[in-house]
Amino acid sequence: MIQRIQTLYLLVVSALLAVTLFAPLAWFGGDAGEFRLHAFALRTLGGESVQPAFYMGVLLAAACALPLLVVFLFKRRMLQLRLCVVEAVLLVGAAVMEGVYYFLSWRVFSELTFRAQGLRPAIILPLVALLFVWLAARAIVHDEVLVRAADRIR
After folding, report:
1. Beta strands per DSSP E along the chain
2. Cβ neighbours of residue 109 under 8 Å, at least 6 residues apart?
3. Which residues neighbour 57 within 8 Å (Cβ) at sequence distance 6 or greater?
4. Rounded distance, CA 108 to CA 6, Å?
5. Do the Cβ atoms of 20 and 60 come closer than 8 Å?
6. Coil, helix or strand for 110?
7. pTM value > 0.85
8. Contact, 121 vs 33, CB < 8 A?
9. Which tens digits make up the pLDDT trace of 28-48?
10. For all residues of the chain together, what is the average pLDDT?
């Protein structure tokens, strides 16, 4: 299980998404102070929630848990491949949701006289994880081809 390269790719995906869950994704500053966009809410520096982002958080949490499930399905390669496709869809959805919540958070501060905003590096991690999901799916297909070739020889 751990000796397969796709297992390492899937563990990297899960680690990247765990970082995305707990790290700030963007920051906003204005007359009212500084705010940070996290996976589950837009929060002040003190930790008070200003605007919920529950759907993005749930999507990122599901995308973080699915690769861990896929790792333990190592005997069912075709199911692993299908779940990698589901993971890719979740990651694209998470990236879209990040953009939506960034825009919604930006609208909250657009009427202030002084405002600044910026992105944190954690906001691109779902797209990096998408690359690793693709690599894992490719390795799973390669394993399936090897197993079918070995069955044909017998």
Report:
1. 26-30, 33-37, 41-44, 49-52, 115-119
2. 28, 30, 32, 35, 115, 117
3. 21, 38, 39, 40, 41
4. 42
5. yes
6. coil
7. yes
8. no
9. 887 777 888 899 988 888 888
10. 88
